[in-house]
Structure formats: structure tokens, C-alpha cells
């Protein structure tokens, strides 16, 4: 598919597999291909297993983003994100009592996805990546990584 992006992920990590499963389910426009970091394709791009198993990588048109910035790029390509934002924008018109909460949530989402919050997003992503083996239901083993 033209314009399709590639999501590289750790195929041996249950948390990563579940995350990919969620994105697949929400990828209504088939905007993504999913490729394990342990593949020949990832190696050919120079995505070394030992360096990148700690983060998801998103690649599109000769560019690559890792970690939090990959998550943001993926979110911006999911139609449900825009539907949710449209619902938040419409909420005050339907239920006026939601005006302040809806506006506050829109501002929070906008700020969190802006470049201003990249340092905080990067730190949060690194924390989750380091602790993913402790998350409920995770089958991830971080040994030898």
C-alpha cells in the first residue's frame, strides 16, 4: 500500500505483541505493516536487535522514529484517534456540563502529543520499556538485552 508505514517490534515480548494487536485492530485503513525487529528486513535497515529491542520503531519513506516518537506517529495514523477528538469537540454541544472537562482533556491531549512534551513522553516510554516484563500478563524476558 502506498504511504504505508512499517512498525518494527520485539516478537518475543508479550507486551509488544499485545500492543501490536491493538494497533492492528484499530488500523482500519491498513496504514501499517508489522515486522519483528528480529527479522532480516530489520537487520537490512540497520536496526540491530541488541540496540532496538527496547523500543518500537516506526519507519516510513526512508525515515525512522523510535520509542515515544514512534507511538505518536502511529497514533496520528489511526482513524479512531480523530473520531475520539471529534467526539470531545462535540461533547459540549451535546452535554453543556462537559464543556470544562472536554476542553481540559483536549488541551491535555494536544499538549501531550506536542513536541513540548517529547522529553516527558520519552522518559515514560523508557520506563514502560524497562518494566514491561513486570506488567500483568507479560511474557517478556529482558535477559541478555
- SS-based class: alpha+beta
Secondary structure: number of strands: 4
Order of helices and strands: EHEHHEEHHHH
* Shape, per Cα inertia axes: globular
Percentage of residues assigned to helices = 40-55%
As laid out across the biggest beta sheet, the strand order is 2-1-3-4
Q: Cα-atom Rg, whole angstroms?
A: 17 Å
Secondary structure tally, helices: 7
- Give the DSSP E fraction (strand runs of 2 or more residues): 5-15%
Low-confidence stretches: none
Sheet with most strands: 4 strands, mixed
Mean pLDDT figure: 83
CA-to-CA gap between the ends? 33 Å
Offer a few descriptive terms.
145 residues; alpha+beta; 4-stranded mixed beta sheet
